[in-house]
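ARCHIVE CARD
Drawer: 12
Card no.: 0347
Subject: one protein chain, sequence and derived structure
Cross-reference: see card 0346
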Amino acid sequence: MGKAGLIAGLDVGTTKVCAIVGQVMEEGRMEVLALGSAPSNGLRKGIVVNIESTVESIVKAIEDVSNTSSVEINSVYVGVAGGHIKSFESYGAVGIKGREVSRADLERALDAAKAVYVPLDREVLHVIPKEYVVDDQEGIINPIGMTGVRLEAKVQIVTGSVSAVQNLIRCCEKAQLQVVDIVLEPLASSLATLKEDEMKQGVVMIDIGGGTTDLAFYKKGSLAYTSVIAIGGNHITNDIAIGLRLPVDEAERVKMAYGAVLPLGSTDSEEIGIMVAGRERKTIPRSYLYEIISPRCEELLELIKAELKKCGAYEEAIYGVVLTGGASQLKGLDRMAEAVLGLPVRVGCPENIYGLGDTVADPKYSTGVGLLMYGAQNEAQPVITGDMFGGILKRMKQWVKGFLGRQ
């Protein structure tokens, strides 16, 4: 079974940095070869605030890969998120003079849609085709071969802060890594967790990370809306630390081991052990934890509900909501989400992954696995090599080529 390509993804989050390596096999399946992670100390709400600390975390994650496998990473697809991410719709039209639509026509229409004013402090990250219109016929996914006079492309343009994106790239370069492409993290997580039919009919992916919560709404098979909410798992951890007067590390441990957002019935009276200031051990009823966690989760879900109504997803998300990310594993969060949002909810994990599939079939690895899938779908050249060249400047051509290649 031969190799069709090797890809590396780097998820630089607020709480952890995850490096992941995958191999695309001949039949198109993804095999995860190596995984490494390290605590992240240089980001706040998804944005680099300390380059030196971020570089150190990236290096440790890459070293973790090297220590557990024979793979050496030199180039990566890097995820980006944070409140600086914005998206908007754009349209572009070209004449086709009554002949069949060609791929060149598609590229011209996409170029026209991209010819919009972008402020100097913003950088275009993705231009995502949503649909095409041939003359008056709307809702066309692939117009190649159709005949008409006018071709229009409707796209979603995703932008980020130049400084935030460049600081992230700079951190990777200081860690001796070449950035092949910058990828919107909600887009990556969606690739790993959403099913094709969900994206066609309407679904919302919600990735609850450490510093922020990313939202991506899909309909007609394409990204229709994305936003960021400035609440994540770290806020829950901090609430526990304050409420129980615990060090943050101990609060995180208690959250992951015993945390729940709804009453658990018979276990509510269970006594759990906590370490106060790293010295004194005492016990508290487990119900205390629920009383701290529940209000913050309800606040987050109410903010999500407002976003869904704002973008129209509340009425159009036929398949409801898919929760992912590390904090999505809190016991009872899916049930609370169904109650607050009034929509079907499931927890999404990376699926159909081989190799280390059992390990990465976890919501906290959705972005990392999605970065591999993004690279594979865009026909990436091998990125684990000693003489890689090109990279970030080729992004615009890759977007167009990647979309056309899926038609």
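Annotation on reverse: The two ends are 26 Å apart (CA to CA). The chain is about 35% helix and 30% strand.
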